[in-house]
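note to self: the first set is below, dont mix up w the second
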Amino acid sequence: MIKQELGLKQQQKLSPLQIQTIKLIELPVQELEQRIRKELEENPVLDDNPPEKKDEAEEEPRDVSLSEIDEDDPIPAYKLRVNNWGKDEKPQYNTFSVKQSFTQSLMEQLGFRNLDDHQKAVAAFIIGSLDEDGYLRRDIESLVDDLAFRANIETDAEEVEKLLGIIQEFEPVGVGARDLRECLLLQLRSLRQTPDVENATRIVSDYFQEFSNRHFQKIMSRLGLDEDQMKAAMNKIVKLNPAPGGQVDDSYNDQAQQIIPDFVLTLDDGELNLTMPRFSIPEIRVNRKYADILMEAAGSSERQKKEAASFVKQKMDSAKWFVEALKQRHNTLYNTMQAIIDYQKDYFLDGDEASLRPMVLKDIAQKTGFDISTISRVVNSKYIETHFGIFPLKYFFSEGLENQEGEEVSTRELKKVLQECVDGEDKHHPLTDDQLVDEMNRRGYKVARRTIAKYRDQLGIAKARLRKEL
């Protein structure tokens, strides 16, 4: 038996303008420029050429329905223009730098070696198997199998090992190592063999586990070193590069792109002034030519002209939605950033992290009247240039905890104080997490041990025994 029920269901549907605005809000300034140029290419109604007459830019748009095509009245006010950014472009922000790739550098060095075509093919395969840090993370037997099945090259473990040894002689020193120990040893063996270097080599070669766990007394005892000799050897080791491949940017996949700030904040005579530079974003407006086509179709009953007018109307609506979405994006970003500046005014005046107040998305949503989801979209991937540096907007948000006076302080302030505690500790006897809790309490911050451990991990601070020095 089929049962039918009749009911009402309320459903909110976003308009094309709202959808367009949401998508544009998410974009940082670099991607916004690309998005605008893509829209200019796809929608012929949009134009980035300046208006021919000064008063044309001041005209306000009016929606035109297809029912008006049968009327004799001309269509007024069709043009839109976005002019929310300053006119001075700053091309110096839009720069890319590409260095010689890591793989290219090794292949170039391979070309100088006296090897036959077969050996070069095997060596090239090994180079292509290195990770971005310059390590060979795969075992020799796996490489032999891959060479056979993927490259149709017959070889054996002995030949691969021999060619890997040649690659390990390339620059940067340490490349081709299979683990950190081998990487450090390759670098130590390339240095002038002084007593300090020889001691460092013995430490890394024979007591690497003890070295990693900072069991310095055990190493000194077994190698018969005094404290000065141990310090000198350690000084050689800590200056080595644990990631030799990181010295060279890898081709076009890892281009170094300079950040383009979405906002610029200046301090003028004690006043904070916020701007949104246009950089290379074009001003766009509705193209008059296509509005004229729509006007020519007015009063006509011919089917083709009707269809042409319908097409142009569709494109004009799309153009107006896009331009209006750009305006709304600008207003949303500006109002959100201004609310953040107002909330964190003390910080933006001097750039002192201790002045950062606890702030979450909800706080700014309440100040602006926007949804939390909108604030999240604004904050994501956006940057601001201030008189004390360039920062991602996410930097200014943090949870809060109470100090002993009952005042709420930001987690960023707590992390800064924790870092100061670690920086000021006696490195011969570094502070344990329990001792850091006591030190933080002494400075007026009530923090649990698990919070200390969490913040320490986030700051990249090792456990006490790993911070121990001679």
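second set (the one i keep forgetting abt)
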Amino acid sequence: MADSLYDTLGVKKDASAGEIKKAYRKLARQYHPDTNQGDKAAEERFKQVQTAYDVLSDDEKRKAYDRFGSTNGRGAPGPGGVNVDFGDFDWAGNLGDIFGGRFGDIFGGGTRGRGRTQPVRGADVETQVRLSFEDSLHGTEVKVPVELTAACSQCGGTGAEPGTAPVICPECNGRGVISESQGLFALSQPCPRCRGNGTVIEKPCSKCHGSGRERRRRTFNVKIKPGVKDGTKIRLKGKGEAGQHGGPSGDLIVVTRVESSPTYERRGDDLIVQVSVSFPTAALGGKVDVPTPEGTVSLKIPAGSEDGKLLRIKGRGAPKLSGSGKGDVLARVRIQVPKRMNKKERELLEELQKAVG
């Protein structure tokens, strides 16, 4: 038997937490009962390694051990005759540290256990709804059908045939876990009879076969606020999949898919529209009619406007989802060059060409 807990793990007294953990994992794998079945010496060695790591991996316990030779002066003697407190020792938790939490899940966290199955929140459900460009600007209300898992309509979610009810599991007496003594340790694991629920169903529901759940088609009326964009997500709290073991339902997430517009290009809350302007108007200035979602607006074209110039009409764009105002309409000047001209038009252009040439 080693003289100290440090000797048990084969590390120096000034070893870092990482070195202690590395040594512990190596020895725990080497002496684990599953790989040394029937070897009492290996089992005893495994317990010593567990005890040493429980103390040295805890800063407070390690300080007490370094100072007094024990963590609190009480408890069972450990390696080398040193008193070590087992009060807070979590065997399953330490095994989970070795094997990535697998044993912690299996054994339910050592002697403290997890008890009955915990409530589980239902999953979120995402669906899409298609909107016209006009509806995205003005807002609307749509019907959204979805397939959801809900409580069984026949048994009300109990899983038991109507007229009956789940009963307390006789194997674990409703605890959801069973414990098995292993010397200094008590190992807990989910009850195999009730699978951790604490209750068993003697007569399962004929419709859901005991699951307490069924697929059901539901339709929700969803209000679409003015100004939604393509890809906007609308969350309906509690309208998703039903929870399990008394847990809350998930959410329904509605994603808007907005059709493109033949007139406007959307840029944030602004709307871009192409406006045809004749060459004389672009050169001399004038006015043109510009379509907006709220009707046609007369727009002044400054003299000397170039092709592609953006002219802003404030407050006539898409509504802002924040509810504070609207974006703008941006009129992009597109100068039209005539493909056919009469004699007089040609003569005038030729005179202009001579004047500027």
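remember for set 2: Residues 40-56 form the longest helix (17 residues).
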